[in-house]
Each structure stands twice: as C-alpha cells, then as structure tokens.
Design brief:
It is built from 14 helices and twelve strands. It has about 375 residues and is α/β, with parallel strands linked by helices.
Length: about 375
Amino acid sequence: MLDQLLKKYIPRLLRRMHREFKVPVDKQKKMLNSFKEPADDFERSYYQYVCQRLFWGRLFYFGASAASIVLLPLKLRQFKKMVGMSGSIEDEKTDLVLVADEMPDGIFPHAIIDSYNSKIRVGAMDGFYFDEEDLRFFETLKGRYRWHPYFLYKCLMKQAGYSYIIHRYKPECITTCGGEFTYTSSFLTEYCNQKGVEHFNTMHGEMFYYILDAFSHFNRFYVWDEYYADLLISLRAKSEFVVALPDSVKMNLEEVDIAGLRTYDYKYYLQMQDGDVLKNIADSILKLKEKGASISVRYHPRTINLDEIKRVMPGVDLENPREISIDKSIASARNVVGLNSTVLFQTYISGGNVIIDDVSNRDLFIKLKEMQYMMINKCHLLSEYI
C-alpha cells in the first residue's frame, strides 16, 4: 500500500496542484545556479532530486521520507534474495524497448522506431530483477546518499525494473517518454551504459523553464523543436538533442476524414480548469458567439468536473475526447484556442490556426511568459478577437 502511494497516487496529486506554477522563476534560477558542475550521473540525479524538493512542500517531503525509511530496507532485502537466481527470466531478444506506461500511440518518432529491427513496448516496472552487479551498483549510490531515503527508494525501484528489462530483452537501447520528469533519469542512464545499453528519451508534452527537469541526462533526447533543446540546456540538462516529430504530434490535417463532423469557427481545448477560470472561459465564448461565431469546447480526457462545465456553459457544444480523435478534432476547427495545452503545438506544427487564451487566467498567462512558454510568441491572442 505504501509503495503504491509513493509510486502512483501522490505524484498524480502533486500534478493536479500545479505546483510548477507556484514557484517564482527567479527562485528556480537562483537554486539552479547554486550547484557546482555535477561530477557524474549519480550527482546529476541527486541535484535533480534537490531541485524537485522545491516544489513538493514539507508535508510531502517528510511523508515520502518517512514511508521510504520503512520501504527501502524491505525492498532491498527482497531484491537481495534474487541475487544468484540467474536464468530465472526467459529471454526475448529485442533490439529496442520502449518504456511507455500510459502513453498514447504514435508518441515515439520514426527516427527511433525505424532504426531497430525489433521493438517492444513495456512498462517501467512490469517485473523486477537483481543480481550481484546490481547490488554493487546500488550500494555505491547508497554509500553516497544514505541520508536521503526517498531518493534511494525511487532509484532502487527503477533500477530493479530496468534490470528486469535488460535481462529479459537484451536490448541495444531503452527509450522512455517524458523521462526527464523523474530524478532517476541520469542514474538510469549510467546504469544502462554500464550494461552496454543506450538510454534515450522523447518529449511527452509542453516544456517550460521548470527546474523539475534540471540536470536530467540521456544518451539522446528527441525534442519537437530546437527551442526545447535550448531550454533544456539552460536547465543544465545533458544529452545529444535531436529534433524529430512523432506521428501523434504532426498531422496532415488535409487528409483527415472529417465527414459527418461539423466544422467550428473556434474550438476551445480545456485542461483541468474549474471555478472562476471556467466562468471566464465561458464569458469569452459568449462574446465570440455574440459576434456570430460557431464554437465548440473539448474537455480533457481526465476531466472530473463535467457537470460543472455543463452548468457554466449551457448551450455550448461539448466535444467528448473519447468519441472524437484528436486529429479529427483539430481538422474540424478553423481556430484552436487554449492556454498551455499540447494540442496548441500539435495544431501549430501541423499548419493550423492557434489562438492563445490570455484572458481567462491572466496571472497564469503572465507566469507562462516568465517560464518561457514557446507558443506565446508564435500565435495570436484571444484578447484580439473578443
């Protein structure tokens, strides 16, 4: 129960709290610049861990540390029992392993998947394995950071998951998606390299100046635009950066079949807005409708306040993301409207018209400019239309 709490539920809670927007950029830059150059990938992971603590809050930090004090020796004892059990995993030789828990299809660019003869998609912790080399590797980390149990616990779990992948599939390369988000990234790159395996990463969604991603290291990092490579370098990340767009990002909108779908003048892409911000969005929609425009609102797949949306936006056509694919959705909109949704970049790079909402949440809009959000300088603003 404790391990599921640390691995799944608390991180989701932190994402819903949008803590990344609550720490001033000046404070983030001051912390980032306070570190000396990391000596190795162990230190890179530790620096990233320290940076991430800035966003957690004391309650989470002490809770996670307390839980890890209990879990770390239990899991390490469990993994030590695996030592000497070589041959217990059935080999399935695969050149490329894509670690893609809960990721959409087409998220990996062809520059990766077409470079290998065989590939398989797995979860980061579908299984666990540990041998004597793994134990020595982890004990080195533990010897350096023994007073940071949560840091060690998460590294241990990811290492055991990667060990299982490497022993089962014997890959040439392991590629993850959005892996810069975890402070284990550099640690795992060092682990993979010692096993003779390359460790790659691809973008998952929009990026900002956000030191949660600081110091991450992969052998290669596929980004959607050179802008993101420069942004990551400013965060002291280290990789060979390659620009490559996956099918899920760049679409040929002219070839998308939208027969039977209505084309709207404006389509607003909600994220997880509620309360006053949702009311402000509804006011903007009303002003556009008063000018004779046709409007639809697509709510987020993880929306939990659909009743509130219906109440605040009576008479507005709502688009269900489970019924209409994202390519059909974008292709049936003359203008795509939102604030910091990945859909905006998808539309922009595919040649569609994008409008940034600078009205409904002005404070967040200003914050996103401060965090170097790329799309703000490339698109029209909603205030120009209402």
